[in-house]
């Protein structure tokens, strides 16, 4: 086959779709393409083509009567994909009259074939078209890699689509990104040896002594082509007859290598290196982005561990203070009411730090916080605590900055109900509710002494003044009587799964 200098060779991985109702013309085009090593799907209609393309994937080359079927390519390539993910095939119109060429170009054709024409002329035109198709396929592969780089955070299956696309223009069986890691080498492998519809992605690690010693060595040409894979791990070397390694760089620092391996001998030629060099740049950017992301993630994890340890120590220190105050309360009965209030407040604060010490994010689960405060109140009072937390509140969270004030508010409302709900000394019920009925509502109620009037900030006791002072601006507080119950309600406006 004739080959222009600088033009990559046509690969058997290219897929051409011929849409032609005329049987003789369709068969001739199919044979000419197959003679030049191109996988060809020849169909009589666009409908037939669409059903077949869904299984084979989008075509690299589409040949048909584009002048009369302007939507031919869109229908063949869309396949339910978003517009930015649709491939850009090379489009060739088959025309009977040169005057139809203009309309074909308006409808999106890149080239045209005049039919009938001499078979040798058509074959030569097809060779030129296939060279342009190959260049288009390379461009699409590099575009796909560029899209991958933009959001890369981890390697898991990252290059599967790129490797699959690359196989259309190169006979590759392994697409491997290798990086030095902890005295060894970590390989991210896209394996296309299996007969599955999609490649197999896996990660493996090997000691440096079992890895090709030249994998990370820079060369004058910027790449290395070998007739074997010299890594000792059989998952990398088995059946491979040729290998191409390209170092990956980031700001002048080598961060790894891109390796392509094939079961075919002499599968890689210098002529494709400009395209592979561009691809390696994109892969290098992705590897560098992932490396930075992983370092940031590790640093964030380290800091999170330190923060959780600080919360744990604060909780332990507060529990120590609670123990001291409890001892003074037992030894000095006349101070018991004051010390009990202080103990309950410290316990509420300690519970916030306890919850923060068990979670990686600086948020406190509202459901867990209210349950812990209510359980502590149960141990300190003679009344029955009826705790009702609806299941749909389990995903409500407080930011750490709001958790301590809200914990003190919840504790104060419960303690207020305990102290003032049943002044006649009888045992009663303290009902605690957290529910989401349109808005999130936290309520503490007792069926004892109702308020004679709605208290104002000036007329409120210290407990209710503390509640109003600590409540976030997004919360409303109301004290009321309903059906024989006294209710202290906090409505949390605009609360979703996060505060």
Features of the shown structure:
alpha/beta; 3 domains; Beta-Lactamase; six-stranded antiparallel sheet; 499 residues; Heat Shock Protein 90; Rossmann fold; 41% helix; five-stranded parallel sheet; 12 helices
What does this structure look like?
With 499 residues, the protein is an alpha/beta fold. It has three domains: 15-147, 3-Layer(aba) Sandwich (Rossmann fold), CATH 3.40.50.2300; 160-288, GAF domain (Beta-Lactamase, 2-Layer Sandwich); 295-492, Histidine kinase-like ATPase, C-terminal domain (Heat Shock Protein 90, 2-Layer Sandwich), CATH 3.30.565.10. The chain is built from twelve helices and 18 strands. The protein has helices at 23-35, 46-56, 72-77, 99-106, 119-150, 160-166, 234-237, 273-331, 336-356, 366-380, 400-420, 462-470; strands at residues 15-19, 39-43, 61-64, 90-95, 111-114, 174-181, 184-191, 200-207, 224-226, 242-250, 253-262, 363-365, 384-389, 397-399, 429-437, 439-446, 475-482, 485-492. A six-stranded antiparallel sheet has the order 8-7-6-11-10-9. A five-stranded parallel sheet has the order 2-1-3-4-5, sandwiched between helices. The protein has a five-stranded mixed sheet with strand order 13-15-16-18-17, covered by helices on one side. Helix 9 packs antiparallel against helix 10 (366-380). The radius of gyration is 36 Å and the shape is elongated. Residues 1-6, 80-84 and 452-459 have low confidence and may be disordered.
